[in-house]
Write a structure and sequence with these properties.
By secondary structure, the protein is mostly helical. The chain has eight helices and three strands, in the order αααααβββααα. The longest helix has 23 residues, at about 20-45. The chain starts with 20 loop residues before the first helix and ends with a helix. Bound molecules: manganese (II) ion.
Protein backbone atom coordinates (compact mmCIF):
# COMPACT_ATOMS: atom_id res chain seq x y z
CA UNK A 1 0.00 0.00 0.00
CA UNK A 2 1.57 3.25 -1.07
CA UNK A 3 0.51 6.78 -1.91
CA UNK A 4 -0.52 7.53 -5.48
CA UNK A 5 -0.15 10.75 -7.41
CA UNK A 6 -3.74 12.08 -7.68
CA UNK A 7 -5.00 12.83 -11.16
CA UNK A 8 -5.85 16.40 -12.03
CA UNK A 9 -9.59 16.91 -12.57
CA UNK A 10 -8.93 19.43 -15.34
CA UNK A 11 -6.52 19.81 -18.24
CA UNK A 12 -3.06 21.34 -17.78
CA UNK A 13 -4.18 24.40 -19.75
CA UNK A 14 -7.55 24.76 -18.00
CA UNK A 15 -6.35 27.43 -15.56
CA UNK A 16 -4.82 29.68 -18.23
CA UNK A 17 -4.14 32.56 -18.35
CA UNK A 18 -3.89 32.56 -14.56
CA UNK A 19 -1.61 29.52 -14.37
CA UNK A 20 0.04 28.36 -17.59
CA UNK A 21 -0.13 24.81 -18.94
CA UNK A 22 3.62 24.16 -18.88
CA UNK A 23 3.87 25.15 -15.23
CA UNK A 24 0.90 22.91 -14.36
CA UNK A 25 2.39 19.97 -16.25
CA UNK A 26 5.84 20.21 -14.65
CA UNK A 27 4.36 20.98 -11.24
CA UNK A 28 2.04 17.98 -11.24
CA UNK A 29 3.94 15.41 -13.29
CA UNK A 30 7.44 16.17 -11.98
CA UNK A 31 7.29 17.96 -8.64
CA UNK A 32 4.24 16.32 -7.11
CA UNK A 33 5.23 12.95 -8.57
CA UNK A 34 8.65 13.38 -7.00
CA UNK A 35 7.25 14.09 -3.54
CA UNK A 36 4.93 11.09 -3.88
CA UNK A 37 7.69 8.68 -4.89
CA UNK A 38 10.09 9.93 -2.22
CA UNK A 39 7.39 9.74 0.46
CA UNK A 40 6.71 6.13 -0.49
CA UNK A 41 10.44 5.36 -0.33
CA UNK A 42 10.75 7.09 3.05
CA UNK A 43 7.93 5.14 4.73
CA UNK A 44 8.55 1.80 3.04
CA UNK A 45 9.19 -0.85 5.67
CA UNK A 46 8.54 1.54 8.58
CA UNK A 47 5.57 1.69 10.94
CA UNK A 48 4.26 4.67 8.95
CA UNK A 49 3.43 2.42 6.02
CA UNK A 50 -0.35 2.05 5.64
CA UNK A 51 -1.21 5.15 7.72
CA UNK A 52 -3.18 8.04 6.23
CA UNK A 53 -1.23 11.11 5.18
CA UNK A 54 -3.12 13.16 7.77
CA UNK A 55 -2.16 10.73 10.53
CA UNK A 56 1.48 10.80 9.42
CA UNK A 57 1.61 14.60 9.42
CA UNK A 58 -0.28 15.15 12.70
CA UNK A 59 2.09 12.77 14.49
CA UNK A 60 5.18 13.82 12.55
CA UNK A 61 8.66 13.53 14.00
CA UNK A 62 9.96 16.76 12.49
CA UNK A 63 13.55 15.51 12.66
CA UNK A 64 12.57 13.01 9.96
CA UNK A 65 13.36 15.26 7.02
CA UNK A 66 12.37 12.81 4.29
CA UNK A 67 8.86 12.29 5.68
CA UNK A 68 8.46 15.94 6.68
CA UNK A 69 9.41 17.32 3.24
CA UNK A 70 7.88 14.67 1.02
CA UNK A 71 4.83 13.93 3.17
CA UNK A 72 4.16 17.66 3.31
CA UNK A 73 4.75 17.96 -0.41
CA UNK A 74 2.40 15.08 -1.13
CA UNK A 75 -0.40 16.47 1.04
CA UNK A 76 0.01 20.13 0.13
CA UNK A 77 -0.15 19.60 -3.61
CA UNK A 78 -3.05 17.13 -3.34
CA UNK A 79 -5.00 19.93 -1.62
CA UNK A 80 -3.77 22.61 -4.02
CA UNK A 81 -5.11 20.95 -7.19
CA UNK A 82 -8.50 20.41 -5.57
CA UNK A 83 -9.05 23.97 -4.41
CA UNK A 84 -8.53 25.37 -7.91
CA UNK A 85 -10.92 25.09 -10.85
CA UNK A 86 -11.34 26.54 -14.34
CA UNK A 87 -14.76 27.66 -13.07
CA UNK A 88 -13.29 29.21 -9.93
CA UNK A 89 -12.97 32.74 -8.68
CA UNK A 90 -15.58 35.02 -7.22
CA UNK A 91 -16.38 35.02 -3.53
CA UNK A 92 -17.63 32.31 -1.16
CA UNK A 93 -21.21 32.37 0.07
CA UNK A 94 -23.13 30.52 2.76
CA UNK A 95 -21.49 29.35 5.95
CA UNK A 96 -17.94 29.91 4.69
CA UNK A 97 -18.72 33.40 3.45
CA UNK A 98 -20.19 34.24 6.86
CA UNK A 99 -17.16 32.78 8.66
CA UNK A 100 -14.78 34.85 6.51
CA UNK A 101 -16.75 38.01 7.23
CA UNK A 102 -16.79 37.16 10.93
CA UNK A 103 -13.04 36.47 11.14
CA UNK A 104 -11.68 39.19 8.86
CA UNK A 105 -14.46 41.77 8.59
CA UNK A 106 -14.98 41.37 4.85
CA UNK A 107 -13.91 39.25 1.90
CA UNK A 108 -11.56 42.01 0.74
CA UNK A 109 -9.90 42.12 4.17
CA UNK A 110 -9.45 38.33 4.05
CA UNK A 111 -7.99 38.58 0.55
CA UNK A 112 -5.53 41.19 1.75
CA UNK A 113 -4.49 39.11 4.78
CA UNK A 114 -4.05 35.93 2.73
CA UNK A 115 -2.21 37.74 -0.07
CA UNK A 116 0.08 39.39 2.45
CA UNK A 117 0.88 36.03 4.07
CA UNK A 118 1.71 34.60 0.62
CA UNK A 119 3.76 37.60 -0.46
CA UNK A 120 5.81 37.88 2.72
CA UNK A 121 6.65 34.19 3.14
CA UNK A 122 10.41 34.47 2.62
CA UNK A 123 11.67 31.96 0.09
CA UNK A 124 9.69 28.80 -0.53
CA UNK A 125 6.51 27.92 1.32
CA UNK A 126 2.75 28.08 1.48
CA UNK A 127 0.01 30.46 2.60
CA UNK A 128 -2.98 28.89 4.33
CA UNK A 129 -6.54 29.49 5.38
CA UNK A 130 -7.25 27.16 8.30
CA UNK A 131 -10.38 26.30 10.21
CA UNK A 132 -10.12 25.80 13.97
CA UNK A 133 -12.42 23.63 16.06
CA UNK A 134 -15.64 25.59 16.41
CA UNK A 135 -15.29 27.07 12.95
CA UNK A 136 -13.03 30.08 13.46
CA UNK A 137 -10.79 30.90 10.48
CA UNK A 138 -7.14 31.95 10.53
CA UNK A 139 -4.56 32.87 7.89
CA UNK A 140 -0.93 31.80 8.27
CA UNK A 141 2.10 30.70 6.29
CA UNK A 142 4.67 27.92 6.57
CA UNK A 143 8.13 27.47 5.02
CA UNK A 144 9.14 24.74 2.57
CA UNK A 145 6.59 21.87 2.55
CA UNK A 146 5.50 22.27 6.16
CA UNK A 147 1.77 22.64 6.77
CA UNK A 148 -0.64 23.37 9.62
CA UNK A 149 -1.31 19.70 10.40
CA UNK A 150 2.30 19.28 11.52
CA UNK A 151 3.12 19.98 15.17
CA UNK A 152 4.80 23.24 16.12
CA UNK A 153 4.55 25.18 12.86
CA UNK A 154 2.91 28.25 14.37
CA UNK A 155 -0.12 27.41 12.22
CA UNK A 156 -2.95 25.30 13.54
CA UNK A 157 -6.23 23.77 12.60
CA UNK A 158 -7.20 22.13 9.33
CA UNK A 159 -6.04 23.80 6.11
CA UNK A 160 -8.93 24.37 3.70
CA UNK A 161 -7.16 26.66 1.22
CA UNK A 162 -3.46 26.69 0.37
CA UNK A 163 -1.30 28.62 -2.07
CA UNK A 164 2.06 27.29 -3.21
CA UNK A 165 4.56 30.17 -3.35
CA UNK A 166 7.59 28.11 -4.33
CA UNK A 167 9.14 29.61 -7.45
CA UNK A 168 8.41 26.37 -9.34
CA UNK A 169 4.70 27.27 -8.99
CA UNK A 170 4.93 30.52 -10.95
CA UNK A 171 8.39 31.39 -12.26
CA UNK A 172 7.89 30.39 -15.93
CA UNK A 173 5.01 32.81 -16.36
CA UNK A 174 5.51 35.39 -13.63
CA UNK A 175 9.29 35.34 -12.97
CA UNK A 176 9.83 37.43 -9.83
CA UNK A 177 6.30 38.88 -9.83
CA UNK A 178 4.90 36.78 -7.00
CA UNK A 179 2.18 39.35 -6.19
CA UNK A 180 0.77 39.02 -9.74
CA UNK A 181 0.62 35.24 -9.33
CA UNK A 182 -1.14 35.65 -5.98
CA UNK A 183 -3.70 37.95 -7.56
CA UNK A 184 -4.28 35.50 -10.42
CA UNK A 185 -4.78 32.64 -7.96
CA UNK A 186 -7.92 34.35 -6.69
CA UNK A 187 -9.39 33.98 -10.22
CA UNK A 188 -9.24 30.19 -9.98
CA UNK A 189 -10.10 29.42 -6.34
CA UNK A 190 -12.74 26.69 -6.19
CA UNK A 191 -14.87 28.11 -3.37
CA UNK A 192 -17.33 25.22 -3.59
CA UNK A 193 -14.53 22.82 -2.66
CA UNK A 194 -13.19 25.14 0.06
CA UNK A 195 -16.72 25.36 1.49
CA UNK A 196 -16.96 21.56 1.66
CA UNK A 197 -13.62 21.42 3.46
CA UNK A 198 -14.76 24.15 5.86
CA UNK A 199 -17.91 22.19 6.73
CA UNK A 200 -15.86 19.03 7.32
CA UNK A 201 -13.11 20.76 9.29
CA UNK A 202 -15.03 22.98 11.70
MN1 LIG B 1 4.79 23.05 -5.59
Amino acid sequence: MSFELPKLKYAFDALEPNIDARTMEIHHDKHHAGYTNKLNAAISGTDLEGKTIENILINLDKSNGAVRNNGGGYYNHSLFWEIMSPNGGGTPSGELGDAINSAFGSFDAFKEAFSNAAATQFGSGWAWLCVQEGGKLEVCATPNQDNPLMPGTGCGGTPILGLDVWEHAYYLNYQNRRPDYIGAFFNVINWDEVSIRYAQGK
